[in-house]
Please model this.
Amino acid sequence: MLLKYLTINTIAEVCCFIIAVVKLRKVNDIFWKSWIVFLFITCVTEFTGKYLKDLYLADRVHVHPNVWLYNILLIAQAFFIGMMFMHLLKKYTNSFIIIMSSFSLLMIIYLYELFSHGIYVYNELTNTVMLVIFILLSFLYYYYLLKDEAYTNLLYSGDFWWVAGVLFFYFGTTACNIFFEHLSPEKMKSIKHLTYYIYNAFNIVLYGCWSYSFICKRWEMKILPGQSS
Model:
């Protein structure tokens, strides 16, 4: 019964969650440790979403689609990823105004979409704007990293790999979304089948980079005195 809920995405998410619990539970950094909470929320959302989808497909008259669940997840994504960027960027600049302004913009668009079409339709505009914001924040981080004269071993930098995961995933999915929207109707079916595998690949890259960043962060905490409990 449980096996039908195990997909490439859910397996990647669960593995990443387990690694986060193992590697981050003793890290004395609330921003990094918060990823245990976020990944738990993500896993619960995915499994619940698949369960609700099965109910909806079995009885579309009395059961609502599971889109409302992913609309709620958008808020969690905006909050946790936004706070993480603010934490990573504080080494170089005060990004509080940028992050809070971006989050406020997202919430305005989010509420507008909810009032426009309700919670049972996915907030596409909110998701698109959020993708662009995360991409720009990733570029901003790498800009400051390149300007930083201090030596950083990127192979073992948790910050670097966490941002890499965000950039690869959100830049890649944004490109796929643009490409998907411009397809001709007669090619839509075949390309949609292809993009399914592309999205899965980007998910693997995202959770792979994040998992490795958690491992790196744990290494950093062990190396730096007083950083591990």
